[in-house]
């Protein structure tokens, strides 16, 4: 057969930006965004994004310049996920809970040309910009005034809405010349002092968006509640995904369990995402009127938390991803035969991360010292590695870090896991969170799962505490459920674990807190807890204390 060559007809670069125009055509009268008293349809959102992209393009920044956004889950935040790349620039969402210094570090490292900021975050935006060196080009500041908020609304001639109104609704948005051009820049979660800038291409975002919809079996026109911050990996790609399926984006500036339940019932929500802390947050509320699909990621949700959440009417799907892959790439694909298993066994299976999604080429657990696959025994721990088109281009201005994690054809995640006999992966810990006690590897995740099974425990996190004899021992930080009449004593918690764990895995220290410190995406700040445990100093343990 003659070797055929690609042509202009089939070389159109892949980009999720094309989803928006189709949504405006197909879902003409369907709501695209609901926020307080504001409702837009998909044609309206399409026109608003074109106007905004037109106005942004007039800044005449260099191609692929970085434009930053500092905002909660409001309509403008959603629109900017389309408008900035439609203007030919790279969108950089910034975690709204970061401190001034870290925000300034990001703005400087990204060389951001503009900063769109929610007016409620003015002091954070202005304070961060004030920390930039005088000779460093400061970003153009564009406030977003909340039209549904009397304190925020006002004259917007120089702000977001005023700029949008001056834009051209017939603007021909800037298509990428290559699908490998950068589209997003997201900094790692900020739980360390040196977050890295993760760059994704139009191609990788296109692939992960399609993959995320298919993997979660998202139907057309779902009602999606934004409990996951859009600044966290662009909302795991569901910002563009909702346009692909004509979904309704129910936006929340802030939320708690009461607000979430009210929004679910008022808008007939069908789908939502969130870290396991979101599951835990809603455990004390009544059963839902109709089932809600919830996708959770981050730390593995303990089986007791899954059982409680599903008893309320949530249908929990568990996935694994990271900023470097832009969404969920390993998920617990459910087997029909598991439906006949007891609820506790179903919860145990569902807490596993699972198998690669269709958009990922390969996932494995390997010995990091030689790159060889570990035995499929569910016991031998190794590092989780990934390969596929949804992987990042690399870390911005950090070739050393890029080369360190992307090598030998794999992305080395830094997550420690096991491979079960059925080919399903289960995370045991982050490499930095593994506790080595007397030469034994202690998985903090396994200890936390047992602690969550205690009826008095609301939140649990386990880190290493220095020990004179064993090197390290597990130290548990706990918060208790509301309404617990008598707080369990430290020795009672230790004994509870001793009955359910090998003795070397049992926490030797238990610390009670009102609430565990977390990042904006609901991840427990284990680095902060490690600092507390380290400041407590070495604990003198004897061999007898382990018996």
Low-pLDDT residue spans: 542-547
Reported for the largest beta sheet, the result is:
9 strands, mixed
Structural class category = alpha/beta
User: Percentage of helical residues?
Assistant: 25-40%
- The helix count comes to 17
Which CATH class of the domain at 432-546 is shown?
Alpha Beta
Secondary structure: number of strands? 26
Give the integer mean of the pLDDT values: 90
The largest sheet has its strands arranged as 2-1-10-9-11-12-13-14-15
Q: What general outline do the C-alpha atoms trace? A: globular
Structural topology:
Blueprint: H1 18-26, E1 31-35, E2 38-41, H2 42-57, E3 66-70, H3 75-86, E4 90-93, H4 100-110, E5 114-118, H5 122-130, E6 140-144, H6 160-165, E7 182-187, E8 197-201, H7 202-215, E9 223-225, H8 233-236, H9 238-244, E10 248-250, H10 257-267, E11 271-274, H11 276-281, E12 292-296, H12 303-311, E13 314-322, E14 327-331, H13 343-350, E15 355-356, E16 360-366, E17 382-388, E18 394-395, H14 399-405, E19 406-407, E20 410-419, E21 425-430, E22 435-437, E23 440-442, H15 444-452, E24 457-467, E25 471-480, H16 490-498, E26 509-512, H17 526-535
Parallel strand pairs: 1-10, 3-4, 3-5, 5-6, 9-10, 9-11, 11-12, 12-13, 25-26
Antiparallel strand pairs: 1-2, 7-8, 8-18, 13-14, 14-15, 16-17, 17-20, 19-20, 20-21, 22-23, 24-25
